[in-house]
Design brief:
Elements (H helix, E strand, L loop, with lengths): L9 E5 L4 H12 L3 E8 L12 H15 L3 E5 L1 H17 L6 H20 L4 E3 L5 E5 L2 E5 L17 H5 L1 E2 L7 H11 L20 H6 L7 E4 L5 E5 L26 E7 L4 E6 L7 E12 L10 E6 L7 E8 L4 E10 L6 E6 L2 E12 L1
Parallel strand pairs: 1-2, 1-4, 2-3, 4-7, 8-11
Antiparallel strand pairs: 5-6, 6-17, 8-9, 10-11, 12-15, 12-17, 13-14, 13-16, 14-15, 16-17
Helix pairs in contact: 1-6, 3-4
Length: 368
């Protein structure tokens, strides 16, 4: 975690009910900070078990706070989440893009609404259980990779700015996930073995298509090959994503051979879903892309185009060599050293220089 930041004294930890934020709070207490915790409820449309189980998470957070001897505050950010995150989520799916709501949730809820609320309660800074590292120097704050490459979450934090990073602590930066669980067991925390949350909170364990159909109408249309051969019927282009293999309903197509089918394109003009066979099909490969909503953590581009760096198109993807061949205030054009599979409009494209996360953008269009 690095040297203690002065004159920071009071830290508000975002306590989710999971093991990561619990150990983050413990580490700060051990370092001598005055620590309090805040539990955020961000969704209340459906609290049924197996979906967004806020009641159980709150109970787990309360048990951790009691065990650590710290005060637990609660706050409901459901309105802010709906307005700032979920409305965007639906807008993107209506446009047949595939958004990443966790990225926006971090910027708008965990490091804006939470930060503002914590400062209002008298905290100097906030802390979370994210796996990432903040380096502070005379030029400001840098967001860097953490010690555990399997858990690094900088991909989801690229929209943070200097103000947000300056008021944040990531106490797990130097730890691996097994080490975090071992610490939790040593403390006797009941959530030491709690399963990591996966997927999107407000969808939970239910089928994604069924959830989305509550907000976006089904608009069936043909499933076809690139040459126009009909394979079946889709339920609505918004319910599918580029590179998708499961849930297509075209297994055993006559004359199709054994290779699995993948979504390669969405033809909005004719409401057609285009599938190809084989994960390495040329229509799934892209050497270049354009992206919009460009954001730099430092506040400005790291250099003029052409600018060589690395990037990833999905969480945990190994860093890919690339060049930003065109940079404007809000858009960029990127060419990769190697073709990239299933480049998906709406997803995050995050840039790195070594272990430093520079910022990122939202994929707009894949190019050959």
């Amino acid at each position: 975690m690095g040297a203690r930041i002065t004159p920071v004294d009071r830290v508000m930890v975002g306590l989710s009910g999971g093991v990561d934020s619990a150990v983050a709070a413990h580490r700060l207490i051990a370092q001598g900070y005055r620590v309090e915790a805040l539990f955020m409820k961000n969704w209340e449309e459906d609290d049924a078990p197996g979906y967004c189980a806020a009641a159980q998470d709150l109970a787990d957070a309360a048990a951790v706070a009691e065990r650590l001897g710290i005060r637990l505050h609660t706050v409901n950010f459901a309105t802010e989440y709906w307005d700032q995150v979920f409305a965007y989520f639906l807008e993107e799916y209506r446009a047949l893009r595939t958004p990443n709501p966790d990225v926006l949730c971090n910027r708008e809820i965990k490091f804006r609404a939470f930060l503002d609320h914590a400062l209002g309660l008298g905290a100097d800074v906030i802390a979370t259980g994210h796996y990432a590292r903040i380096i502070r120097d005379t030029d400001g704050c840098q967001l860097r990779l953490c010690a555990d490459p399997n858990k690094d979450q900088t991909y989801f934090l690229y929209l943070l700015d200097q103000t947000q990073l300056a008021r944040s602590l990531f106490p797990l930066a130097e730890l691996t996930k097994p080490e975090v669980r071992a610490i939790a067991r040593g403390l006797g925390l009941a959530n030491a073995g709690k399963r990591d949350s996966t997927g999107i909170c407000f969808i939970g364990e239910r089928r994604f298509r069924d959830f989305l159909a509550r907000y976006l109408p089904r608009e069936p249309g043909p499933i076809e090959t690139p040459d126009g051969r009909r394979l079946g019927e889709h339920q609505g282009l918004a319910y599918y994503t580029i590179g998708q293999r499961q849930g297509l309903g075209v297994g055993g197509v006559a004359g199709g051979g054994e290779a699995p089918w993948f979504v390669a394109a969405k033809d909005q003009a004719h409401n057609r879903l285009i599938l190809v066979q084989g994960g390495d099909h040329p229509l799934l490969q892209s050497q270049s892309l354009t992206a919009d909503r460009l954001h730099w953590i430092s506040g400005s581009p790291p250099g003029p185009a052409p600018f060589p760096c690395q990037a990833r198109l999905r969480h945990r993807q190994p860093l890919q060599a690339c060049t930003l061949i065109r940079i404007t205030e809000r858009r960029c054009e990127v060419r990769f050293a190697e073709p990239q599979r299933a480049v998906t409009p709406g997803q995050a494209l995050v840039f790195y220089a070594g272990d430093c996360c520079l910022g990122g953008a939202t994929v707009d269009r894949a190019q050959p």
